[in-house]
Design a protein that fits this description.
The protein is an all-alpha fold. It is built from 21 helices and no strands.
Length: 469
């Protein structure tokens, strides 16, 4: 039951209708049952893992609230980390590590059978574990409601692929649902987000996937210009796909009177790689900042330690995305980019260039950032590391004049940059806000998105990319 399916539309309509009709005290238990039911569509047995993680952190939170002894508090936090990362590691990384240990001759047998990856495990594990860390740090009072806490862990709009929420933001909203009145403003805002997200997924992302999937399945069968087009289209696809999920999640929650965080802020308009990570998958970036980078020392220690902290954080970010070397290399690649940016940004010659020609400097740094991000997506998307050399080699050959370009390939390349230009113009002119401010225009616009999504949806549409994580 994915967000772009008719089953989800019917499920959401039923949940919102029942939620609105229920008395206040019954709403949170109802949403918990609905959320666990939503997850059980994928697997009833795997629903137990959510309950194990959630009840562990609920109990750890209560125990932390009753003790002041530092040793005991550390042991309780260790229990949360061990249970959550133990489950995540077993299901997601067991085969990867055993295969690599076997390749090094450290274990006798690799190639273990792959386990079914529980949907959303990387997301809800980080979400529930952050609660125990916040209570341990005394940044949050432990909740005494197991129902509200389990809903925090399993809330269906953001359960499978985020955004990764914080207990200090979500738990108070769940507590307030008892007195919440379903408002037309919430319904309108939620529907707008859902319609916009569906359009981005079924029209934009899924049609980008047509060429992307073919080229990356057999890179050697395609020329350099086709490979370049596939890289550009994947850059659009992954953004449209993931931001679409986040917007549908945010819209679904808004229908129920719950505000989720924004997960994207037009990342391809970022002027540098650090800004890119403040705009891309914001909830995950903030999670790694608060629970990995800062505890390692952040930017408060010596230069060498700061660089090491950045590298370690991005390595773990890459590993979080998947149990494969291309994700690890992708994370390290971005770690290197952040290290270079951190080293250069305050150099005297860089400061002089920025001050003397700020517009030119901004355009150059934006172009550099965009294209190294595209290179990173090549590392992210390949099915095996050897494909990077094949694709990069064919693109280099084409750019050097070794291959003629077709009209359709030229159209894709021009269209890619045109989309970015339109995004920049729309941001500066606040076009979407202007549409929403005029009721008649807004109705026509979103009705058009709905009709286009219905008419243009592919019969065999690919699933959301981040479902695999």
């Amino acid at each position: 039951m994915t967000f772009d399916s008719i089953e989800y539309v019917l499920f959401l309509a039923l949940v919102v209708s029942v939620f609105a009709a229920l008395p206040g005290r019954a709403r949170v238990p109802f949403l918990l049952v609905a959320s666990l039911g939503f997850y059980s569509v994928w697997s009833v047995p795997l629903t137990a893992l959510i309950l194990i993680s959630g009840l562990t952190d609920f109990g750890v939170g209560l125990a932390l609230g009753r003790t002041e002894r530092l040793t005991r508090r550390k042991l309780l936090l260790l229990l949360s980390v061990a249970v959550n990362l133990g489950i995540l590691g077993y299901f997601k990384y067991r085969g990867f590590f055993l295969d690599n240990l076997h390749a090094l001759g450290l274990v006798e047998q690799g190639g273990v059978a792959e386990l079914l990856l529980p949907p959303g495990i990387s997301f809800y594990t980080f979400q529930t574990m952050s609660y125990s860390v916040d209570v341990y740090r005394r940044e949050l009072e432990p909740t005494r409601s197991p129902t509200r806490f389990l809903l925090y862990v399993s809330f269906f709009p953001q359960l499978i692929a985020g955004p990764i929420e914080r207990a200090k933001k979500l738990l108070p909203q769940f507590e307030a649902l008892a007195g919440h009145r379903v408002a037309s403003e919430d319904l309108a805002a939620g529907l707008r987000l859902i319609l916009f997200g569906l359009f981005k997924k079924v029209v934009l992302a899924d049609y980008c996937a047509l060429l992307v999937d073919r080229v990356f399945a057999d890179p050697g069968a395609y020329g350099g210009w086709a490979s370049l087009c596939a890289c550009l289209l994947f850059t659009l696809q992954i953004y449209f796909d993931f931001s679409a999920y986040s917007e549908i999640a945010k819209g679904s929650a808004r229908l129920l009177g719950v505000e989720l965080v924004w997960n994207f802020d037009q990342p391809y308009l970022a002027a540098n790689i650090s800004e890119f990570w403040r705009r891309w998958h914001i909830s995950l970036s903030n999670w790694f900042r608060d629970y990995v980078y800062k505890p390692l020392g952040g930017s408060q220690r010596g230069k060498a330690r700061v660089l090491l902290n950045l590298a370690a954080t991005m390595f773990l970010s890459g590993l979080w995305h998947g149990a494969a070397w291309n994700f690890v290399i992708w994370g390290l690649f971005h770690g290197v980019l952040l290290l270079v940016h951190h080293q250069l940004r305050e150099r005297a010659w860089v400061v002089r260039l920025r001050e003397r020609a700020p517009r030119v400097f901004g355009v150059v740094t934006w172009a550099w950032t965009l294209h190294v991000v595209i290179l990173g997506w090549l590392l992210f998307r390949v099915e095996q590391i050897a494909d990077v050399r094949v694709i990069a080699g064919s693109i280099g050959h084409a750019l050097a004049g070794g291959e003629s370009i077709t009209a359709s390939e030229l159209g894709i390349i021009v269209g890619f940059y045109a989309i970015l230009g339109l995004s920049l113009a729309a941001r500066h002119l606040r076009l979407l806000e202007r549409v929403q401010d005029r009721a008649s225009l807004s109705l026509v616009f979103y009705a058009g998105l709905a009709v286009a999504s219905i008419l243009l949806a592919r019969e065999q549409a690919p699933q959301f990319i981040y479902f695999q994580f």
